[in-house]
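#data-curation
PF: Archiving a pair of folding outputs for the training set. Convention for this channel: one message per protein, sequence first, structure tokens after, nothing in between. First:
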Amino acid sequence: MTVVREWRRDGFVVSTDPARLDLAMVQRWIADESYWARGVPLEVVRRAAAGSLNFGLYGPGGQVGYARAVTDSATFAWLADVFVLAPHRGCGLGRWLIECVMTCPELQDLRSYLLATTDAHGLYRRFGFEEPEAGRIMRKSDPEIYLRAR
């Protein structure tokens, strides 16, 4: 049985309850606004969420942010799909969302966390992330996969 975690601050809630997620909103934002998964279909977002520890950020009007951790819960976690909707940026909610992820009991005592970002290095450095040594990380990717699937 999965334990649902919640953190509260100034009328906002971060929750790991998958039943609360508005995956249609998450998909729209990632598909339309992100630089990392343009065009991602809803079914892919659903499968990704099903295989992740999800963190929904909620305000009085509903979900306003999201992050997920892909993890084996023992040694490793990949932090992915982190965002806060534009009207809610600039007041520390993104920092708080990452703080909730990093303090979540299910993600403690891991050997390593990874993430990919082109624009938020300063945010993640506050939580101990640093750029890896050149030549240690390898990647295989297909950035056009969602375009071909249509």
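PF: Second:
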Amino acid sequence: MDFKMTKILDLLSDGEWHNISELTEKLRLAGCEVEPRLDFLNKFDLAKFDVEDGKVRINKDFQKLLESATV
């Protein structure tokens, strides 16, 4: 997994909705670096990416998997 995706997943791991602008600011990444990764997560149902509202939230089941993998 690439470093940028890891950073995105770290921020999303709280399970809350996050604005894209918040993610790009906290990660210090351009939207063009963040949005394709969010599209990927959404495509495989690992996160819900609401493009209209510009927000994203990790899928609860995927969140549990990530938590168990880091224990």
